[in-house]
Amino acid sequence: MTEFPHDADTPAGVPARTPAPDGSPAASELAPPITAETLGRDPIRAFLHWLAEAEEASGLRYPNAVTLATVDAQGHPDARIVLLKGADERGFLFFTNYRSAKGRELETHPDAAMVFHWDAMGRQVRVRGRVERLPAEESEAYFQSRPRGSRIGAWTSEQSARIEDRETLEARYHAVEARYGDGPVPRPEHWGGFVLRPREIEFWKEGAWRLHDRIRYRWSEAQEDWVTEQLQP
Question: Which of 30, 146, 157, 170 is most exposed by smallest CB count within 10 Å?
């Protein structure tokens, strides 16, 4: 069996951690344990705090990158990385082509899951809930805030569809670019946002000897509030 990671594979510029005998970092290298009390009553607020810390300390190019898991029409799981573009009292916001594989899957099976992982910080957040489209005016506002090249790209790509080669894709891009010239680039009707409204949000923090902290928030319809529980690692 091949075991990972190997010390020799540590990327340049990233300090190597000295693992404990089982590969776990020493307790002295880890942040204090998390509890429902330290996280607070509002998991969205706690998530935004963690994301802000990841933006400052993780060293990641995209600390807002998240694995989005869906289910296709045959009931098969699917997953990919997307970029979170916001989070508020409604849930977690992202944008895509509604005709893409994930867009079609979410229309068929609107239940989805997300996983955020900030390895350098020893943190992870898991989210499960139901997805729905954002209002058109919200998608419009975000679309117009994107760089012009990205707006042209939204018209260029029939996302997830087959194409002959890279040259064909670039030719399509230049054709769209010529079509709009210096004028405004409208939002395609098939492009817009989704919000994942969470039913569960779990915060995970790395612990020594694989004794990780797991705090789960579950939305209670009866109590109209979040209830928390600590899970074994």
Answer: 170
